[in-house]
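[job 0412] stage=fold_complex status=start
inputs:
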Amino acid sequence: AQKVTQAQTEISVVEKEDVTLDCVYETRDTTYYLFWYKQPPSGELVFLIRRNSFDEQNEISGRYSWNFQKSTSSFNFTITASQVVDSAVYFCALSEALKGAQKLVFGQGTRLTINP
Amino acid sequence: DAGVTQSPTHLIKTRGQQVTLRCSPKSGHDTVSWYQQALGQGPQFIFQYYEEEERQRGNFPDRFSGHQFPNYSSELNVNALLLGDSALYLCASSPPPQNYGYTFGSGTRLTVV
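[job 0412] stage=fold_complex status=done
writing structure:
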């Protein structure tokens, strides 16, 4: 069975600090996809990144970066120079890499609060 | 370009009643998935519709049923509502050939009293 664990329930930092959100996953699949979503107070889940299990290269997008380590089954997300607008709940998710859309298995989420 | 549209945004029902939630997928998307998100929890997969058929189902009782129409829009029906069904119900659509990410709607907040 697939499982995603986000051990940090809540994180609070001061603006401009760097913050890392942890994600650990479990799966017996050899190929899979990992995702990060942001959920602002409005409720919709905003897609941030999808990573294929074969691609362990780290990725940077502006202030966001992702560290995928297959050896430790982790897919951590770092926000550099955090801003108040980054405040939201962040979810890590996992899906099988099969043909056709597959269900997403989500972690419990991490509530990130950036204080001015 | 409209994203995923869900209606209604909020709903209050009495225990034992039935409810229907609606979802219009993003233009060009043909697969619709439904998720239940209890307060403080991550979304849980309910089921997925593709070509008007249920293709995958999560661990939810038969009280939860759905439908997909020829225009790809979808409905989620819940019968015999329980207090524990109170949650945010999220609809997500994905384009062919699928698995390139999902676009989520803002959800329907269902409160059962």
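[job 0412] summary: Chain B is about 0% helix and 50% strand.
[job 0412] exit 0
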